[in-house]
Every structure is written in C-alpha cells, then in structure tokens.
Amino acid sequence: MLTPEPGGSDMTTSDADAAPGDRHDSVLTPVAPGDRIFNLDMLRGWAILGILAVNALTFAWPFAIALSEETRPWAMTTANVTGDWVTAVFFQDKFRTLFTMLFGVSVFLVGGERDNAARGGLLRRRLFWLGLIGLIHGLAFWYGDILLHYAYCGLLMMLVRSWSAGRLLWVGGGITAVWTVLAIGTGLLAPVLMSALGPDFAAKATAGGPQLSPAEIIAVVEQVRSGYGAALLQNLQAWIMAQGASLFLIPVSVPLMMIGLGLFKSGYLSGRAPVWLYVLMTLIGAANLALLGYAEGLKVTGGTLPVVGLATAAAGAATLITLGYASLLILMSRFGLKALTAVLVPVGQMAFTNYLTQTLIMVSLFSMPWGPLWYGTMGPGALWAVVGAVWLAQLIWSPLWLARFRMGPLEWLWRCLSYGRWIPILRSAA
Hints:
1% strand, two-stranded antiparallel sheet
C-alpha cells in the first residue's frame, strides 16, 4: 500500500483551502495558486467537461425523456444514433463518478483531520454554502443540480476523512463492488427473468421510467417555451423527482468519495503509484469500455432483451472505466505529455464556476425567454455541436481569467462566504 510522503504537499494543499503552517492554526487562508496539485486540477477539469456531455440532454428535453430510452422524439438519423452511442459509451456515469471521487478528496483537504476543530468548522461552513447555492441552482435554473447532493454527502464523508488509505479503499471499494456486481447481475439475469414472465411483462419492465406520449412531449415543450414562469414550474416538478432519486444515490456517492480519498492518501492520484499499476488500470478500463461499446452498438442495431441486458451489465462497471480514464491521464502527465493534459488544469481550477456557467449557457440557449429557445428541437447529434462549443469556450476562458485572478469568480464568492471575510482575488493582491 502506498503512503503519503511525510509532510508532503498532498496533506496541505488542495483544490480548495489549506491552513498555513501547523495544521491546527486558528487562522485559515485559501490555498495559494502555486501550491495547487496538478493531477487533481487536471482530473477535475476532465470531469467537469465530461459532465456537460451527459447533462446536455436534460437541458434540451423533458426530464422523462432523459430517464427513458424508450421515449426518443427525434429522428433516428446517423448523427443522432452516433451521438447517443458516444454519450452512453464514453460519458454516461463515468464523469459523475470521477467528480464524486474528487469531491471526497476535497472534504479532507478542506477539513483536515477530525481533531482539527478550526478546519472542521470551515468544512461545515463550506458545505452549508455549497448546499444553499445548489438549492438556488436547482430551483431557479436547472433541476439536475448535483451540489446539494454533494453537500449532504459531504457531511457523512467528513466523519471518515481521517481513516487510513487502506480502510477507505477497502470499505468504499467493497461497497462499490457490491453495487457493481448487483448492476452486472441484474443486467445478465433480467433477460432470463423477463422471458420467463412473458412478453407483456418484459415490455413494461424495459420501459425504463416514466413515459410521455408524443402529445405529452409536445405539451411539455410548449409549456417550457412559453415563458420563464412556465419553465420554472416544469423545472420545479422535475427537481422534486430528481431530489427524491438523489437520496437513493447517497450509498453510492459516499463510497465513491471514500475511494477517491483513499486513492489520494495512497499517492495514486498524485502519480506516485508504480507505473505498472496505472497501465493495468488503463487496460482494465479499456477492456470494459470496449465491451460497453460493443454492447451498446448491438442495442442500436438489434435491441432485443438479451442485448439490452448485456449493455446494462457492461454499463455497471462504469467505475472501472473511470479509473482507466484517470490512470491514462496520470500516465500521460508522467511521461512527456504534460503539456497536453495541462490544458485541463485551468478548467479544473475553476470547476465550480464552470459547472454553474454550463447551466447558465445551456438554459439561455434552450429554455430561457432571452435565448433562441432551442428546447425540444435538437437530437443528440446537434447537441454534440453545442457541447463542443461550450467545451472550447471554457478551455479558452479559464486560463485567460486565471492569468489575472487567483481563482474563478464563484470560487471567490464561495470562499468569502465560508471564511466570513473578504478574500483577495486579484493576483497582484496575493
């Protein structure tokens, strides 16, 4: 088992905040830009970009469509089929998983050890403001907010933040392994059970979630496009359902946070693990990705019940694909390609700002009256053009902003609220 370097920067620098000097200092200050951890920012940037690819559909169409593969109102053109396949194979669940793991690291880096009262208080304030911002974000703009979920999961995660790397990995990994086995088993066994219960039952069971008729889809789209008040009401209804579902994700998210912190404490996320281990995890992730791609391709061409079950089983191993992504990026940074992975770092340093900015851009384009009102008009193919444009914008604007400022604007606001004082934002004021 890898262990952190004694007194190393991993224990005192973060994506968020760190105490200068002794870890029990009563005066806390945000981490200096030069003390940030490259790999964490890189992985966070990768995660925040990938999350948009999955969320795009929920900005563009009613909530029920995002939940069910059986309700697809767009034409099944090559572009739409390919766009849907790319999202399902390369993005679905992988980037939320990575972001959740990294949040577990943040809980420790902000809060320190459990016996550090000052930093523990800072962590609780940070989580409070995160939850409040997430609540406003979800109610006023977009129902798919994840910040509120992270806030209350963080309250649970802070109870175990002083555990050793081994304990975190064994407990968090064990729980995640159980969920993974259950997901794979469900995918493989469900077709057998469905066949035994008859075609009518199978048709209902594979519906995948709440269904909307074509007329209902049109009605929802027209309601959202009719004005902000109507769009807000529709968003509220979806938010209530989404928040109810997010409660069931707590036993999924907290173990993932534990895995992330365990990987950090062991030195894996810092790039200090043996090379062979990164190569092995990359290969395992690639193998699972290939299987998922094959299964999703079969589902597109011949969506029989066994094929759907195979795709579901392959998707159940998303955590392994996530670790494969992270391992590959760490290897690239370690062996001569750091200049390439470095483009993700500014995006990750401003992850909070970029996440909420993605919402502002997408709702302005799709559902707000001041925008072009593209809601209900784009299939997955066209959505990818929008996603690519937002990616490009954030890859450009993040380093430009950080060239002058110490942190993103919303990171700055969050820190001011958490510390209860004015935090310098200009680099010249650092």
